[in-house]
Amino acid sequence: MDIILLGPPGAGKGTQAQRLEQQRGMRQLSTGDMLRAAVKAGTPVGLKAKAVMERGELVSDEIVSELIDAELTAMGASTGAIFDGYPRTAAQAASLDEILASHGRSLDHVIELEVDEDALVERITGRFTCASCGAGYHDTFKQPVVEGVCDSCGGTEFKRRPDDNEETVRTRMAEYRAKTAPILPIYEERGIVSRVDGMASIDEVTGAIDAILG
Ligand code: AP5
Ligand code: MG
Fold first, then answer.
1. CA of 169, closest atom in ligand 1
2. Which ranges of the chain have pLDDT less than 50?
3. Cis link prior to 87 (omega < 30° from 0)?
4. Predicted TM-score of the model (pTM)
5. Which atom belonging to ligand 1 lies closest to the Cα atom of 13?
6. Contact 114, 197 (CB under 8 A)
7. CA 188 to chain centre
8. Contact 1, 23 (CB under 8 A)
9. Hey, which of 65, 73, 83, 162 would disulfide with 4, CB 3.0 to 4.6 Å?
10. Would you state the pLDDT for residue 118?
11. Active site residue 24
């Protein structure tokens, strides 16, 4: 089963994708995570993407589609993919169709996380992740069980994203409204879109997604 999690910055795409990985053995394909890894490693892609991401704008369609294609090539055919933060433009949506077809795959569900944008700024500015394993946390909504220790791997170092400040978040939201939200009708026409209340608790959102995936 291949699915897209769609929603603005801070909607909970990464949080829910990590849970689906753990509970269903699916694989999270986050272009944001791939780009951050490229920036950290200083690859040519990372060098191109760094400043664009810090401004909160979108990197080029070609770059992200190539990243997705490479990941799918490396992945087993029987493992379901969770597209997180991709596609983000009409051109990326068209590329995804071609890439999936070339791998003998197709989309089963597009799940839109519906959220109140004003509340998202608090979510994003409070976010931090484990520096070792990437598990996600939040200052208010999801602290590690033992303060300063990662629930998943026991790591004690955490990090925050450079684009998680209020000004950049506003640009990221504007990009979502202008370029990403308009791709939803493509999937609505195919009858594969479901909507989930992304303002509910993390567990409730997981339950609603479970009900859709069956
Ligand atoms: P990306 O990494 O994809 O960032 P984003 O879309 O802005 O989304 P976020 O990761 O900020 O939010 P999320 O929905 O994953 O929320 P999370 O689960 O962490 O992209 C970053 C940048 O890379 C882009 O700006 C662009 O430059 C570039 N890029 C990436 N993909 C691209 C593409 N395809 N094309 C072009 N450029 C691309 O949750 C947020 C916080 O809230 C967490 O702390 C979490 O614990 C908490 N939380 C989650 N759910 C709940 C809940 N239900 N209740 C309370 N708290 C919650
Ligand atoms: Mg994310």
1. 7
2. none
3. yes
4. 0.94
5. 14
6. yes
7. 20
8. no
9. 83
10. 83
11. no
